[in-house]
């Protein structure tokens, strides 16, 4: 192990062995005398220090060294926070002279001087999420609370999104009833579900053989030859796929032409407000509620690739993902 010191005379960066702790030495550059401290931990390069001995400022500086942009908000000492006896604290941002007042006992470290608009977007999204959690707790305590026995599939418009009237978490039985119809000129009733032919790969339903054993069902409400796929935000899709796990709707995926993406995003902004998260490369936007999310991913014109809009229930999607067979099981 080694430590890193700066010569007080010439400011050269020196690396010294641990054995030098508490001893006197000489700078290799200027020959000046150097006193090596007994406690070496604070002089080690950040990447060599144990995490348990790193300060909050060290942690943020290490993230900056890795090229990450991060905000670390500390709510203060837990006991003092509970007793509400902390004094108002203003702590300067790491690697910046900017100072931000965040209220009693709250401190903030950032890897760089982040633009105010970006900070506002971040904290506005967190505030919305916190408010949704508060409302969900109130709902759970009220006489109109959802029966816990209904589990993750239960629907609450404050917690879950719905796609054109189909709420995430709805039952497969309710879905069949809602979209039941006779196909004109055919001895065929809709919706079309993959459990009609279990254990079979079906490209038109994006279903795979392992889905049946995993309790996963894919469905669509129109047939390919009908050329009548649903619209999203006024844009005609090439396919809308409904996906269920344990007979609960965990995801709706809409495939649409890339040139129609802006129109869909405008419609989402009008209905749900600005997205909580935006990524520019690749272009991707995310809206979220307490239990579900909407993700919009841009496609490409050359070579042509569909844009995708996904509505998904967080817990149910995670459960469906866990059931995917691992590669080691196929050896």
TrEMBL record:
It comes from the Bacteria. This is Uncharacterized protein. The lineage of its organism: Bacteria, Pseudomonadati, Planctomycetota, Planctomycetia, Pirellulales.
